[in-house]
Design brief:
Layout (H helix, E strand, L loop, with lengths): L1 E5 L4 H12 L3 E5 L8 H4 L2 E4 L6 H7 L5 E4 L10 H22 L3 E5 L28 H15 L6 E7 L2 E2 L4 H11 L5 E2 L5 E2 L2 E2 H12 L6 E5 L5 E2 H11 L8 E2 L1 H17 L10 H7 L8 H7 L7 H12 L1
Length: about 325
């Protein structure tokens, strides 16, 4: 297939680029940081660094493509409302319009399972049939939710749209390697409620398998949760991940009922005082990590024939091997 991939320099995009080229697809990838693209994969893929918001220019570039996989996104959780709107919502709209104008047959959007996490609910074994909650207090999750609605509403039989909702994506180069592991080594990362709650995760290679299945699907205007299968205890999984990356495992634990007020307090401090960097605790981070959250992948199994190929232990071993 001839595939256009956005966000090729990001964590998910880099792994997808390698997976797609290995499978023999012809890939045109868009990226903002050329040095971040895997050199081996880049040798088998064409690269383009045009403006994704320029509908006319992009639609010309997309002529003759079978599918577009949209991974480009703003990921910051702190003080980034405008960037989240411009990148995650408005840019997705522009890419959708350009793909449709160009006659692209399929649009796969990389959403996030967090868009279904109800701040007021139990959030266990969540399925796609449940209505999406209001997430206005959580800008990142809200922006991904808005973008997904545009993607699904744009689909029809001639322009098939699919939204994948991976749960807590992990693997070499993930948020643990980027942020949490370094924080743990500095004793700036701890557990919420001792981490003893159910949590769904998604190893990056399992997500690549889900994309592979989606590319051969005829469904349209559908969303799918993607995970490693059975949920795990958050502390067990995060301890394994920190150990695999050779980071310190924290012992500090914050009671859940204190987490959100403490996050609000630190946010206000960084907002109104001349403090450097970002606050160590943010309300959206509490929402994402401090509460039980598990999703069902039955719909993905039934409609995409998706099965997680890799067990968590296998992914951890691969990370540890590549971290030596």
């Amino acid at each position: 297939m001839k595939i256009f991939l956005t966000g090729a320099s990001g964590f998910v995009g880099r792994h997808l680029l390698e997976s797609l080229t290995f499978a023999g697809h012809e890939v045109l990838c868009h990226f903002r940081a050329p040095s971040a693209v895997n050199t081996k994969s880049q040798q088998k893929a064409e690269v383009w660094s045009g403006n994704l918001n320029d509908v006319q220019e992009l639609s010309k570039k997309l002529q003759g493509f079978d599918a577009l996989i949209h991974c480009a996104a703003e990921m910051r959780l702190w003080n980034a409302e405008q960037a989240l709107l411009e990148t995650n919502v408005l840019m997705t709209k522009h890419v959708l319009v350009a793909a449709r104008l160009a006659g692209v047959k399929q649009f796969i959007y990389m959403s996030d399972a967090s868009i279904a996490k109800n701040p007021l609910g139990q959030n266990l074994n969540v399925s796609e049939s449940q209505p999406l909650p209001s997430l206005q207090k959580f800008p990142y999750s809200d922006s991904k939710s808005q973008a997904e609605r545009f993607v699904l509403n744009a689909g029809d039989e001639l322009f098939r749209t699919i939204s994948l909702r991976p749960a807590s994506i992990w693997g070499k180069g993930d948020v643990v390697d980027q942020i949490l592991g370094k924080a743990a080594d500095l004793n700036q990362f701890g557990w919420f409620a001792h981490g003893g709650y159910s949590f769904s995760t998604c190893y990056i290679k399992n997500l690549c398998e889900a994309v592979d299945k989606a590319l051969t699907s005829e469904v349209t205007r559908e969303s799918f949760f993607i995970s490693d299968g059975q949920p795990v205890q958050f502390r067990q999984w995060m301890t394994m991940r920190l150990n695999a990356g050779h980071y310190k495992v924290p012992t500090l634990s914050i009671p859940r009922f204190l987490a959100r007020p403490l996050a609000r307090f630190t946010e206000n401090g960084w907002k109104y005082l001349p403090l450097r960097g970002e606050p160590p605790l943010i309300r959206e981070m509490v929402h994402l990590m401090a509460h039980p959250f598990s999703v069902s992948i039955e719909k993905a199994r039934e409609q995409l024939a998706y099965e997680p190929l890799y067990k968590i232990e296998e992914g951890m071993l691969e990370i540890e091997k590549n971290s030596i």
